Amino acid sequence: MRPKEAQAIAEGLVRSSSEAAFRGGLDLLKADYPEVLLPTAKRLSERNRADPRLAQLLGLAARAAGDGPLAHSAFSRAARLASADPLIVHSHARTALEAGKPAVDLFERAVSLAPQDGSVLLGLAAALVAERRGQEAIERLEAILTRNPLWIDGHRTLAHIRGQLGFDPVAHINTALATMGARHELHRLRILTLFEARRYSDATVAVAKARGLLGDLGWLRQFAAHAASEMGDIDTAENELAAAPLPASQEEFAMHARHLLRVGRPAEAAELLEPRVAEDRDHLFWPYLSLAWRLLDDSRADWLEGDESLVGLYDLGDQVGDLEALATDLRHLHVAAEAPLDQSVRGGTQSDGNLLLRDTPPIQRLRKTLLETVAAHVERLPQAREGHPTLFSRRAPQRVAGSWSVRLREAGFHVDHVHSQGWLSSAFYVALPETLARDDPADLTGKDGGTHEGWLTLGECRDLVPDLAPTRLIEPRPGRLVLFPSTMWHGTRPFSAGERLTVAFDIALPRQETDQ
Q1: Is 439 helix (H, G, I), strand (E, B) or coil?
Q2: First-last CA distance in the chain
Q3: Quick one: which of 437, 479, 484, 438 has its CA closest to 460?
Q4: Domain containing 468 — which CATH number?
Q5: Is residue 227 situated within a structural domain?
Q6: Phi, psi angles (nearest 5°) of residue 84
Q7: Whole-prediction pTM value?
Q8: Is residue 473 part of a domain?
Q9: Does 333 map to a domain?
Q10: Residue 41 covered by a domain
């Protein structure tokens, strides 16, 4: 479905019966046009306030378009009108959680209507964690997994909750494997979870156990090589890769490229990834190609990231309003004891859920200002370049794919990383230590004696290529927003004392259909 066709369908819905309008609206949502549908859904819902389906349609459109408060309001009305509809009741609970409202009781109602629905059960766990009842969430998920040990989504969610609360994230997976040791999916999940937790020695043991039960499978050799490489055991990694078949997934190709860069073979990394980058839908390969091309002095590195307008700095303190009120809002969300397993945070915590869906005045004002700034930034981006992961032709809608807050404390930092599934990524500074030095941003080496404590680094990957200097260092300031391509390496320098409180979000990759 093309944009003009979607617009015509949306406009025609107001002349349809309620049933036809509901079905047509769902078709627009399936085709990923919530922004086109939203104005019509508002009109339909207002005109038919006793119809739960049209309130449901409005809630679905608002949620997909990123309007959390409107989505919650619409589903609240839909749930009053259709209190026995499992989908509506679940959506009401989900949007309440996302808006920052109490949601445990709403999820309990949803579970009573759909007790076997895994997404409802996981939502209840998230609501319990949000209301500081994490131990209860763990106990409930463990009870379900005892009855259904092959529920992989449940295992994955429980691992993340346990990790953030300071417990062993793989204990329950170990329990399941004790009785179901031949299940490939459980072994794979245990190893990947240990990778996320950076427990590479334990991952090596887990790989060995899997090999003993499953045989010498190709993906296990790839995982063994990755664990060895991350630990610095280069000889073992080389031997495993020499005996391994060609990687079978994008994830395994990326692991192989990491190793080649770590051992100083950028030409081989480029040769591995270049033929496959056009099919790299998750953009796992571009960050490694950027490092390989820079190390090889390949002109494509400049084509990829050399244009300074790809990065934007915007000081928004006046537009955002009271930063201290925003900081107070954000601090309440940091309920975890540890950072998420699969994130870049070291020495701090990260909020759960999509932050910019929350229904509080400081966060909603922030969302409005951030999205207006993103739109202005996109207008300034260079023209489209064929094959480029950032500079493509269609640049709307600019939809938030995820948003969160990070609170770093003494010596906290972000390891160098990327957000491969986004289009544009960000850092917005809310509160900073007073002791941060105002070093020279032009000095990328630290030879002037500056440490750039707490600064944002772009183009640096110290883990793989520690001698490759960042392409840019950016000083954090309260109220400053930094926007940059999601495939660009970024991290932060540690700082000695205080609190560094930020908001970050990703803008999703827009559709690339032609409007013809």
Answers
A1: coil
A2: 10
A3: 484
A4: 2.60.120.620
A5: no
A6: -110, 5
A7: 0.93
A8: yes
A9: yes
A10: no
Number of independent structural domains in the chain: 1
Nearest by Cα to 91 from 108, 118, 104, 72: 72
What is the rounded distance in angstroms from the CA atom of residue 482 to the CA atom of residue 404? Answer: 15
Distances (CA, A) of 70 to 44, 142, 375: 15, 34, 21
CA angle 125, 131, 135 (to 5 degrees): 55
CA angle (433 as vertex; 430, 436 as ends), nearest 5 = 115
- Three-state DSSP state, 428: strand
Burial of 42 (C-beta count, 10 Å sphere; 0-12/13-18/19+):
middle
Q: In 225-372, which ranges are E strands?
A: 312-315, 345-350
The pair of structure tokens assigned to 287 is 């960050």
Residue-range definition of the domain harbouring residue 318: 309-508
pLDDT in tens, 269-297: 999 999 999 988 888 999 999 999 999 99
pLDDT in tens, 74-131: 999 999 999 999 999 999 999 999 999 999 999 999 999 999 999 999 999 999 999 9
For residue 434 the two structure tokens come to 């007073």
Q: Where are the beta strands (DSSP E) in 267-351?
A: 312-315, 345-350
- Both tokens of residue 160? 């993340």
Can you give 157-215 as a three-state secondary structure string? HHHHHHHHCCCCCCHHHHHHHHHCCCCHHHHHHHHHHHHHCCCHHHHHHHHHHHHHHHC
Quote the CA–CA distance of 349 and 501 in Å, as a whole number.
10
**Identity of the amino acid at 452:** H
For 28, residues 6+ apart whose C-beta sits below 8 A from its C-beta are 1, 6, 9, 10, 34, 36, 37
